Amino acid sequence: MSQNNIPYKIYLSEDEIPKQWYNVRADMKNKPAPLLNPATLQPMGFDDLRPVFCDELIKQELDDTTAYIDIPDEIRSFYKMYRPAPLVRAYCLEKALGTPAKIYYKFEGNNTSGSHKLNSAIVQAYYAKQQGLKGVTTETGAGQWGTALSMASAYLGIDCKVYMVKVSYEQKPFRREVMRTYGASVTPSPSMDTEIGRKINAEHPGTTGSLGCAISEAVEVATKTEGYRYVLGSVLNQVLLHQTVIGLEAKAALDKYGITPDIIIGCAGGGSNLGGLISPFMGEKLRGEKDYQIIAIEPASCPSFTRGKFAYDFCDTGMVCPLAKMYTLGSNFIPSANHAGGLRYHGMSPILSQLYHDGYMEARSVEQTAVFEAAEQFARVEGILPAPESSHAIRAAIDEALKCKETGEEKTILFGLTGTGYFDIVAYQKFNDGEMSDYIPTDEELEKSFATLPKVNI
Ligand SMILES: *Cc1c(COP(=O)(O)O)cnc(C)c1O
User: Fold this and answer.
1) pTM, rounded to two decimals
2) For a Cys staple, 10 with which of 87, 302, 358, 428, CB 3.0–4.6 Å?
């Protein structure tokens, strides 16, 4: 069908917000590997995970067989405040590029957290409240996840304790104040409140922290405080499940006009937006119904898929979290200090890792100056100031569209625009001032962090 009369924005009605999440694991022949207990290295079941996570979320985490899981009404009501998210036809970008390609993006930045993270935050806070808990703990890096969880916790009236990587806490006071406005307590990590925080501070005086370290602190507080559980904003199977609202809506919107994407692109940090976007399409691919080219885009400075190892690894620095089998750079890996573009986690979703390992998707890495060039180009014609993370996907979408310009192919490209960049102005400033550089870790550096991978014989 001709794609010349497609509106700029394809909206769905409220009624078309998905009523169920789609669990892509149900259609995977090779399931993602189980989480392992960090002390015994044995697979963890429901009871093992109960001190850390909420009961209902553990069930979702362990469920490899139920294809569709109902979205509770109260969560759908919350979704209605900011969903369905628009699917936008990037006519202006296509014109600026002079490409015959048709470009669509699913925009998830239309809420105060500025990203897709709210889609899972509300779910995790909801199940914590259902279980009668007092509150939740978590970590945050740049602050999108912490903000999303603060919003969800405020809405449901539960407490929210956020451990924020110290360097971000100091350099990004704006998101910190948004979180506090929503009633969350925000502590710079490593702190002196936890055993692991005190240990890390003693071993590395003056450290500005890392995500892996903040996770350890948040887990420790959750397990030692009555009525609290730990929640995580990416990587886990349950988070990817919640984020399938992105892909289900995108597919429903495209289906209305009979459009089938050839290429689907998403940025990959821990893999939750990408997994959520591609799940319904991947399901068709796994069932042999259709084929799509699916591409994960990651920073060249934190290349988990493209240069990492597929192995069991720790999810945190303090080694208190379960181990996950995933593409990883080693839990000690910290991207270079000049990396401003987000997506800095050392590991990757076990679901996406398995799918990539089995050849169902590709991955590419891009350098941050090229990412910000794409961000600028996009902002100038499409009107949205994109998050640096999202701009990794923009980079690849533009590159694919330019290939079409050369070959004359009219491919249809769908990408995830995960959020807005209003809190990333320091990074934009660096780019505008010509002070942004690219740093690609050497093989020696990666080998050093691979050497710390745990020895697991499973
Ligand atoms: C957190 C975040 C990401 C990366 O997380 P994933 O789990 O890989 O999706 C991407 N874009 C934005 C705007 C984010 O806030």
Assistant:
1) 0.97
2) 87
Q: Which atom of ligand 1 is nearest to the CA of 144?
A: 15
Taking the centre of ligand 1 as the mean of its atom positions, its distance from the CA of residue 200, in whole angstroms, is: 26
* Contact partners, residue 455, CB within 8 Å, separation at least 6: none
Separation of alpha carbons 333 and 307, rounded Å: 12
Q: Which of 320, 351, 339 has its CA nearest to residue 215?
A: 320
Ligand 1 lined by 267 (C-beta under 6 Å): yes
Residue 295 sits at φ, ψ, to 5 deg, of -130, 125
Q: Residue 328 — φ and ψ, nearest 5°? A: -145, 155
Q: What is the pLDDT of residues 131-147, one digit of tens each?
A: 999 999 999 988 999 99
Q: In order of start, what are the domains of the chain with their CATH numbers?
A: 3-19+82-114+238-450 (3.40.50.1100), 20-69+117-234 (3.40.50.1100)
For 400-418, give one letter per residue: b (16+ CB within 10 A) or e.
bbeebeeeeeebbbbbbbb
Q: Calculate how far, in angstroms, residue 417's C-alpha sits from the geometric centre of ligand 1.
A: 10
Q: Is the CB of 304 under 6 A from ligand 1?
A: no
pLDDT tens digit string along 155-191? 999 999 999 999 889 888 899 999 999 999 999 999 9
Ligand 1 centroid distance, CA of 117 (Å)? 7
C-alpha span between 134 and 153 (Å, rounded): 10
Each residue's pLDDT tens digit, 270-284: 999 999 999 999 999
Say if ligand 1 is within 6 A of residue 343 CB.
Answer: yes
Cβ contact 105:88 at 8 Å = yes
- The string of pLDDT tens digits covering residues 353-370 is 999 999 999 999 999 999
- 322 against 4, higher pLDDT: 322
- Distance from residue 458's CA to the centre of ligand 1 (Å): 30
Task: Give the mean model confidence (pLDDT) for residues 14-31.
Answer: 98
Q: What percent of the chain has pLDDT over 90?
A: 88
Q: Is the CB of 119 under 6 A from ligand 1?
A: no
Tell whether ligand 1 has an atom less than 6 A from the beta carbon of residue 144: yes
Q: Is the beta carbon of 111 within 6 A of some atom in ligand 1? A: no
